[in-house]
Design brief:
heterotrimer; A mainly beta (about 180); B alpha/beta (about 250); C alpha/beta (about 110); B: alpha/beta; Udp-n-acetylmuramoylalanyl-d-glutamate--2,6- Diaminopimelate Ligase, Chain: A, domain 1; 5-stranded antiparallel sheet; C: alpha/beta; 5-stranded mixed sheet; about 35% helix; binds zinc ion
Amino acid sequence: MSECQHQWEMTNIRFGFVVFEKCSHCNGIRTFFSASGHPMVGDEYVEGEHTWRCMENAQSLQFDLQCKQCGQLEKFDDVMGFLYCTECLDDCKVAILQKKYAEKKTWVIVAFGFLPRRKDTELSPRRLKILEDYFNQRRDTSRSTIAVLSFDLIDDFSRCKGEFIHDVGMLSLEPPKERKPLF
Amino acid sequence: MDTEVEHIYASDLMSDVLAFGKPHSLLLTGLATRQSIISAHMAEFVGVVLLRGKVPKDGAEKFAREHRLVLLSTNLDMYDACVRIHAIRKRQRATPPAKPVEQSKEEILLSREFSIQGGDFANAGMVSTEVKSILKKIGLDPLLIRRVAISTYEGEMNVVMHARRGQATLRVTPQMIEVIIEDEGKGIPDVELAMQEGFTTATEEMRALGFGSGMGLPNIKNNSDEMEIESEVGQGTTLRMRFFIK
Amino acid sequence: MTVKELIENMGLKPLSQFDDREITGVFVSDMLSDVMAGAQSGNLWVTVQTHKSIVPAANLVDVSAIIISSGKEVPRETIELATKHNIAILWSELPTFELVGKLYSLGLATG
Ligand SMILES: [Zn+2]
Ligand SMILES: [Zn+2]
């Protein structure tokens, strides 16, 4: 184990879209990050027993973190974006935690990983902690802090109206009005 | 290549560059994509400075070279870059250069057609680029060309974003330039409403993606001398823009 | 200089409610990714972006205030979210380039 008190820096920023696909047979939902400069448009396609159809593109950004002291690189290919909770659902665990944290002046952001959830792509507490460290390291934590939560806490993606932090007008030309639920 | 810079425009928002940028500006931006170079070209900017050590992407460099746009790069951030330029401005009193206005007296008659593919973001902006270089070769007033280029670009982007396919027609007569963009798209239900600033014709899905065309139509109206839209829901939209040659 | 002093000096229009605090420097960008990567705690962030996404981004890097330049209209939901997070949103009619000239003349440095 290194003794380095890592000082993280954002590197390798990728702009793109979180693409949500839904299977018309089993109603399964899966996601991927498309790093192309435009949203996916396409027809249904069959893959094994599934028939996938692109339901939604949410503009987003990905990045990695690198320690400026020891050079250690933490890749975050499996984080497709950062979602902020709009507290649209009262019974959502994120909304409940967000309200609780707000009293302690801790602001919540959700690291969004891949769907369907798989063991090998799970966002480990260690890696969520690194993200949290990155944001807290350079802020005055006596005023307020950041908590990075896993998207595992979102029970119902189909009703979630959380929004991805993204560059409005960069890949696209105009800001969205209000985002509807994903499905 | 030395070119006179008349204004500085500091922004990462290309819709702003198209709507509010003044000709002969230098664009300071952190957005290093080809779309930013195309936007600067359409708005008749002299060049683009990429900030914070950004590297040009998606053929941005090639586009700049082909269209003789100055493309510079600096490690400065936007604040420092603006500050340095303010310092230069203070030192030298800017004398606006006399703009040579050359009017072509020849009889021109030209008609060209281009096809636009919906969803083809990789080639978005290519038709307006072509239109601009054709008009440049004819030797028309650069400010007139700029108005045509911006309007055509907005119209072209609308097809790319909203329609399956479309066609652009460029006609030049001694009196005017006419650009017609027809598409096979969803159509606009209420054209009058769509003309209002800030209104978006985008569908729910499109809005979720961050798309809309609120800037587009009013910006075309501001830049053209005459504009007409005919639209039928489910069929498509025809946009006619006319620019008078004085 | 504090946010309230800046407002007085520059004649900026405050849109949200916030607690006054010290400004550590200035960061200018319309790209949220740039802000998340480069802005420092207490920085003043100048942008033409008005979508409510700017508030969580500003929050992540602990900016002291956001100045919306070029007279852009700010949606009410952005202002409400900023008030909720105690982030100052200030408004100016000046384009970004001119605004920076003024900030610099007040002695503010880059972040
Ligand atoms: Zn380290
Ligand atoms: Zn299935």
